[in-house]
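Quick sanity check, ZP domain-containing protein:
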Amino acid sequence: FVVNPLTPDQETLCQLQNDSNAHNPTAIPQRSSSMYYMVKVQLRSDNICMRPWAFERIPNKIIRGLDNALIYTSTKEACLSACLNEKRFVCRSAEYDYNNMKCVLSDSDRRSTGQFVQLVDAQGTDYFENLCLKPAQACKNSRLFQVPRIGVSDEKVAQYVGIHYYTDKELQVSSEDACRLACEIETEFLCRSFLYLGRPQGTTYNCRLYHLDHKTLPDGPSTYLNGERPLIDRGEPTGQYFENLCEKSSISSPTGQPDSTLPVVFDTVEDSSINNFTRTDANCDKTGTCYDVEVHCKDTRIAVQVRTSKPFNGRIYALGRSETCNIDVINSDAFRLDLTMAGQDCNTQSVTGVYTNTIVLQHHSIVMTKADKIYKVKCTYDMSSKNITFGMMPIRDPEMIHINSSPEAPPPRIRILDARNREVETVRIGDRLTFRIEIPEDTPYGIYARSCVAMAKDSKSTFQIIDDEGCPVDPTIFPGFTPDGHALQSIYEAFRFTESYGVIFQCNVKYCLGPCEPAVCEWGRDSIESWGRKRRSIASNDTAVDETDEEDMNISQEILVLDFGDEKNSDYMKSEASADFGDKTVTIIEPCPTKTSVMALTITCILMVLIYLLAFFHFYVKKWLQPQKTVI
């Protein structure tokens, strides 16, 4: 809807497309003015509104610290549907993290008052505002319309709006109040502003309604300074422009003056079903609500899962970081807080692989009382193969409750795969193989390998392939390890020892929290990386973990390597295979014919055919030249 440079008229153009890059979260939107870009989405909700659009999207932005609920959904559409279906509070905005499939719902938006609201950059996360709200749900408290105070003159703002805003609806009214009322009760779209052009003149419309306001514009109030009037002015009135304003809540004190301190109110009705033991338990409060707190240690965060015996209303946050590491809980009996291990948002402390933090379960949104619960949570990341048990030691108020958790380090294993990614036990010299050291994917640990050796079955010969520093001894025979998810792998060609067909591989494997750093290895004049050493520090600090206190974990794997032609000595091979591998069945893989062998066979066949033809021709000529005998 571009304004003609000569006349104050908008020239509109509608383009329909059968595809959109907006479904790709990595696509970078291009800035434009006087244009709407709308994308069709499929939302499964009975609360979807019959309006031109349901949500407004701001890419790579979030509002920090105003979350009400956190859920995990597989798609953006599921997150938006959850916002429409939310019953515990009015969902005014949603944020979707495409990388972690995290959906955050909030009862606040860019127009909420009473707290600091600002859009901040968040790569990979989009911010959505719900435009299906009813007029009465546009604000948490009272909804007013007034002239915006944004540092730009009222006349210039009204002039820009009248020329460049796309009018969602226009009508003729008798007064400014009637135009305001029309915006307040509008149901076909969420009306956020209106322009009143003065008393009606004939049949001309004098009231224009818009869903836009200055907070919707990408450049904010500075947009009004960049608008130019058309060269031809028809002399139409500029009018008066009003925007939606959400009023702050005020609670009157006994003196009749507004009091900024919110009252603390707790439900003191006791539940008769709770016995004395439950009331005095450290995990229960005076209202009869009991808390079941679990700690899950991840690779980059500590997940604190809370379940309550009654619906909980309040906040859960990291002590000392109530603004940057918190979740608002509204009438829920199950919720979770993720404590980041890096940075200062949650202020998680770490010493030699032990990460600690303190969380607060607070009933009131502002003040802390004795009824609130404080838990000390701890995650111990042990780099050895020991199994660490989960323990919990309750302590009565006012002391903290300590919760300790240690994720068990999973046992690694070696797999040897062929070119088709099939696990093999019998191969031939020169076969291209993939040597893999694997651990499960759902673990916070990473692995690194060093001191790897290849041994003959009879243990008479040993060849080191990875040294004590994690570097390959001879990359031409066995290259260094490279990461593949949670696994390490090296692609090599099969070899064996002269006196034995069986080759045993053995590696020393250790753990580190998260991905491990590679070892920088020198080979000739080149430097190569091999994942054979531990990450020296965690991203959140430079605390090094003492490797002398760790236990080594050695793993091994056997493989049978044959020469070409060994299948002829099948009896001998079967006997050695039986001696080496017990009851395992040894499969001898027939070699595929090479190009040279096929050519040799072809030439041999041609020569034989030529010899046969020459012999036949010679015999026939000899018989033809021989004189015929006449019998008298």
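Posting the structure with no commentary besides this: The chain has a mean pLDDT of 77.
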